[in-house]
Amino acid sequence: MHPDHTHGAPVQRAMEVHQPTPLPPAVAVPAPVVQVHPGAVPAVASIVLADGRIVTGYAIDHTQHTPAATVPAVSRTAVNVALGGVGFLAVCGGLLLLTSFIAALTAFITQLITLTAVIFGGWIAVQVLGSSSHRGGTTVNIRKAVIKRNHFHR
User: Fold this and answer.
1) In angstroms, rounded to a whole number, what is the distance separating the alpha carbons of residues 111 and 117?
2) What are the residue ranges of helices labelled H in the chain?
3) How far is it, in rounded angstroms, from Cα 63 to Cα 65?
């Protein structure tokens, strides 16, 4: 067990407060001037600020990146696939309309054939079952007959 963790009364310790000691103001010493060739930048650079402080750090070389070849927002393959899909849908729609037209034309022709059969069949029925007076058949005259007491009288 750790020695600070005892089961007795807490131990009083004296607290000491340490105050930082201020440093005397730094004397601004200018940084040595280094001759830099146009193509070479030293790895570490020092700069003297206007208030006399010296900042030392790494020099950053600002290079101009060459722009990459412009790439279209959508690939040519995606455009071709989309156009193929639109064309396929247009063909399917046209085939659907053509199929519907053929079905409607077939129904119309069927109705015309049925109507022709009904009219022609009716004409034939009238010719066959029509009145036989034109052919010189027997004519029967029916007179008014009276039935009295179960006897037929003319």
Assistant:
1) 10
2) 76-129
3) 6
Residue closest to 27 by CA, chosen among 57, 53, 56, 55? 53
Task: Specify burial of residue 76 (Cβ count, 10 A radius: 0-12, 13-18, 19+).
Answer: exposed
Give the β-pairing of 146-148 and 151-153: antiparallel
- Taking the C-alpha atoms of residue 101 and residue 37, their distance in angstroms, rounded to an integer, is 85
Instruction: Centre a 10 Å sphere on the Cβ of residue 154 and count the other Cβ atoms it contains.
Output: 6
Which candidate, 105, 101, 103, places its Cα nearest to that of 113?
A: 105
Cα–Cα distances in Å, from 117 out to 68, 90, 109, 111?
Answer: 79, 41, 12, 10
pLDDT score at 65 = 74
Q: Is the pLDDT of residue 146 over 70?
A: no
Model-level pTM greater than 0.70?
Answer: no
